[in-house]
Amino acid sequence: MNILSLNQIDYLPDGLLEATPGNLQRILxxxxxxxxxGRQAEPLFVSVLLHGNEPTxxxxxxxxxxxxxxxxxxxxxxxxxxxxxxxxKNLRRLDNQPDYNRIWPGTELPNCAETEMAREIxxxxxxxxxxxxxxxxxNTGLNPxxxxxxxxxxxxxxxxxxxxxxxxxxxxxxxxxxxxxAEICPAVTLECGRPGQHYGVEHVxxxxxxxxxxxxxxxxxxxxxxxxxFHTVAQVKVHEKISFSFNQADADLLLxxxxxxxxxxEIPAGTVxxxxxxxxxxxxxxxxxxxxxVTDDYFSIQNGNLLINRHNxxxxxxxxxxxxxxxxxxxxxxxRIRL
Length: 339
Fold this sequence. Notes:
Radius of gyration: 20 Å
Shape: globular
Number of strands: 17
Structural class: alpha/beta
Helix content: 10-25%
Largest sheet: 12 strands, mixed
Order of helices and strands: EEEHEHHEEHEHEHEEEEEHEEEHE
Strand content: 25-35%
């Protein structure tokens, strides 16, 4: 079997509920979509392990499904187990793979086996009249739990607010799972803190249980005082020609070691993020949600210091993991918005 072909089954394979991310590949040799029946026919779709080093979704689903081993699910459930090969090595993705949360319809990546697989999954779930979609992730940096949406519509806000009051709206990066499913049903991405935290597993378990018991999403409007809503206005990457580090003084860009403590904090203009060897070459690149270079709107170099320019900008997903920064980005920048 080609590991990039989609396995699609309607049962739980033996050992799945006890598997670890490291040995899951022995049970599911490749990306797998499992359909399970429930009392309400329209399925809840849940994707886990789109990034192989983010296990909270898998662990919470295992606990959930153990509760229903001897009774029917309240609602049908379709589960996509994503990058199981990367999970076996506790990596976000393997070096020869695209990011499994950039391959979905709307992606800017060229066609490949993974993008074809993602299109197939969306088509399958559309035919099944999917009720709602939940994509479960972890963070590498210090971040609170929050939900992300790609449409500022009431059903999306309702689905997100079930997880908590902190909600982030974004339309970039392209090719993410939640944006693809947003075209066919209410969809949300859950960001559940760092891997290995039991509270994250329990929070997702509680959330998925609530979703399965919904007969419909509430119709009343979400009130602005009930949520904290932020808009992602830029994605920040380190320039590919620049070396960077948090502790190596000879790097072109030496970032502050406590940078991740700024996550979800509205920081003042003039805050120093690090020091640069170059005054003429900006070491980072910020792109807005349309892909435009907006670096100078947010950052400057003064006396060798990398500074944030704007008041009340809030970063998210700042991390000290240099591999993740290279594979994805340094962070996102957000602004508070009102409904």
